[in-house]
């Protein structure tokens, strides 16, 4: 099982779009694929599950979700009454495993563990109880069920991002050719390398995914060239801007199912192939 985290501390760089579209291509090519959404905005969840995963003031988040899993890790849903009942609840919840929180998407071979808007409220309790390795251990139990796992992360280096990096083999870094993104990139890489040193020796930065790349514009070309001059692992397959992505979001259809022959879909296909070839 290959587990990839899509991570950037800067918001608005296309994390969820990249997560979902690469996962959808993976599933379309026959790999049993899982998306885990750790971002409270739940964009990946909504992209794949539509209205079912869309929450509002009057509509709660879809359950079971990743917040429910971490609540079970903490024992927050156990009975507060008799000690025996509480112990039984703890043992029962620990026996569930991560597979109990999986939802089937409408697309073959593609499952989702959705996010929740209140996920962040658990971070302090999880940190204080040293639960940073729980996601890694839970994912290990799914190795026989999935071949590819893609984890969408919040735009911050927090407990949930660190949990994902500890659980993963590879990191994909979305990059939108912005000067501010370039300045933040070194801090991001330092965080990944520190995680590798302290928690997960197997973790590798698989590559930088250049998003919203305008090939005819001077600045994006210069920024990408600078990254390459710094010997950073920039993928050759770059993703152009297109309104088709917003349409894909609106329809809750990943590009491979919405516009197979579109240039952006083909760019994603090329990127996926490059990632897979790099792995082999």
UniProtKB/TrEMBL annotation:
InterPro entries (alphabetical): AAA_dom, DNA_Partitioning_ATPase, P-loop_NTPase
Superkingdom of origin organism: Bacteria
Domain AAA: 2-205
Pfam families: AAA_31
PANTHER family: P-LOOP CONTAINING NUCLEOSIDE TRIPHOSPHATE HYDROLASE, PARA FAMILY PROTEIN CT_582
Record's protein name: AAA domain-containing protein
